[in-house]
Amino acid sequence: MFRLIGALLVIGAAGSFGVNSVWRMNQRVRALRGLLTALETMRSEICDRMTPLPELIDQLCHETAPPAKGLFLRLRQTMGELGIQRFSALWSKVVNQAHELELHEGERQVLSDLGKTLGRYDIENQRHVISYTLRRLEEYLVQAEETRRTQGKIHAVLSLTAGVFVVLILL
Prior knowledge:
mainly alpha; 0% strand
């Protein structure tokens, strides 16, 4: 009886690694979609309505869906340091702290580079950089969806198989 319970626990624990991996892939896709929506809003607000950055950040805090919402909430909290630090430094710090987005290094770099332009240059330059960032993040989204589609099931099955294999070795 205890062996059966132990075997089920080992298989369940191994399976949880696969489920966690699939969850992280889904979280990354969800985050990239949320960032794309937020950046489209940002582009139209900055370039068409000329909304000031603090007001725009507040708006994005209310309109953006999780997990991307956390990025803008964290940014709003750090806006009090704006006189002490440049916006680009605050933006980079917030992007690097946004672990809930499950972003890869290239995606973080593209987002960090965006912060170097926001609020510093004329509208056309900002439009160009935001559009470039959107294109790059769309490419990353396609890659993330493909990875999730091709590797998600593999991760789940392999973790369960590893659990069964360990149980067979131990029995």
